[in-house]
Specification:
The complex is a heterodimer of chains A (about 300) and B (about 290). Chain A has about 300 residues and is mainly α. Chain A is about 75% helix and about 0% strand. Chain B has helices spanning about 10-15, 40-45, 115-120, 150, 175, 185, 200-215, 260-285; strands at about 25-30, 75-80, 100-110, 125-130, 135, 160, 165, 195, 220-225, 235-240. In chain B, the strands form four sheets. Chain B has a four-stranded mixed β-sheet with strand order 8-1-10-9. In chain B, a hairpin with a 6-residue loop joins strand 6 and strand 7 (about 165). The termini of chain B are far apart. Classes of the chains: A mainly alpha (about 300), B alpha+beta (about 290).
Chain lengths: ~300, ~290
Amino acid sequence: MVPDAEFTSYYGRPVLHAPTWRAPDIPGYLFLGGLAGAGSLLAAGAAVTGRPELAQVMKVGSLGAIGLGAVGLVHDLGRPSRFANMLRVFKPTSPMSVGSWLLAGYGPAAGVAALTALTGRAKTLGAVGTAAAAVLGPGVAAYTGALVSDTAVPAWHEGYREMPFLFVGSGASAAGGLGLLAVRLAESAPARSMAVLGTCLEMGATQVMERRLGFVGTPYRSGSGGRFMTASKVLAAVGTAAALAGRRSRWMSAAAGAGFLASSACTRWGVFHAGLDSARDPAYVVRPQRERVQIGAQDDDR
Amino acid sequence: MSTVFLGDIDPAGRAGHEDHPPRMGFFTDTSVCIGCKACEVACKEWNAIPEDGIDFTGMSYDNTQGLGGSTWRHVAFIEQAKPLAAQVPGVQHPAGEPADLRWLMASDVCKHCTQAACLDVCPTGALFRTEFGTVVVQEDVCNGCGYCVPACPYGVIDQRKDDGRAWKCTLCYDRLGEGLEPACAKACPTESIQYGPLEELRRRATDRVEHLHRNGVTDARLYGEDPHDGVGGAGAFFLLLDEPEAYGLPPDPIVTTRDLPDMWKHVGMAAAALVALAVGAFGAGR
């Protein structure tokens, strides 16, 4: 049922308060967290399958990404000096609380993995760190889907089923992209596969989400959110083409890697801005709710 | 549908308060609001809320615009070309054509939801449920993460920019503890804002709607009084004379955390998909 284009509002003012979260802190964290989480899986796989260069690049890259992402998170707080209050309680009802505890476990593990790889010392400890980061990494990459969806923001909340898949796909695309960019051809094959598979998952989840959201998904197609989402798709197509055509070219592979990284970042900025736009326009709040009330009233009449 | 879970529950008891007082709340009867804004002023005064901009909006007499970190009561003004109930239509102004006019005024406030999204998503525990069943921010704990802001389905709680923390109506928690009524209710000259035990307020509100209907005000309806609605019923509910969205209120809000178990399920599946994808990448790379 298509809702009426007309809807009532109070002088056109928003019903919701838009997130106070700012760019680049928060979309940057969404990107870097995905890169780090999926990167730790790639690092562990590389370590197990005897690809030391890929393993080292992904361990160091994951630590750098999560470190920079955490700086963004703290910087975005209204009271950065109180960041430690995040670990004051554990609340499964708050994805941000769950994420804080995940990061508190994942960060040190990624740190141990990277530092032992760089120094070549404490190999057993390094293996434990690598394994722990690989176990927690998928959670780090996926929980942000619930983080943004667990709000009243229509474009985020209504997409809660697809958002975690979209985000892990984007994370895999970024991690594979980093491997392609920084690792020699001899060891980069799994990174190439991960980037291409991740991109497919991301694009598939985006398609499903936009189709299901209909009117509420408009901010993913228009405005600044739409521009970032389009840029993401173009970059992903370029990256995929270069990755598949340039298997034997170091330069083509590096260009593909850069394309995947940029595409993943654009996705996160696109989702971020689509959410802000959807919170600021009362149509996205009022029209679906009014439609729901009307359907409920019809059901009552029967 | 908006008929969700729990129904009438005891939020204070569920939060661990034993032998707590009855759940207290507001019934804001907008049919007797005269738009004096005494509630806005009393709230600012009592709670020592900073000034947050003096604008001329052109939105009737509303220059406050909406609830926010430094506005915990907000009086909305809506001018409509409709007669109000048995009012004699065709208001004759000295100059110009006779026209119908009804002027709706409504004092908005935090709903103190039974299922409060702000409280659910707060990662620090700064937001908590009081023994009166209300929802309050502890300003010495809040670290300004801002998660509560987009979680609220009514656009109530907000960040104070210069301060960084999130603020909203406390239902005058400090006054309640002393047996006093909240400042806005105390200041309201028409008893549009009524404070009391929620059960009693609900009874009073039902009677009031029936009374208005009998007197031809067929537009009168309650908003937020139903414990089976999407937030489990509001601790602060309203009698409105038009659709909620005309007042800037969402017509059928649902607490976002209702879907959280399903969200976690999807997060788990996505994390598993990522592991499978990585295994596949190494399988393909051999």
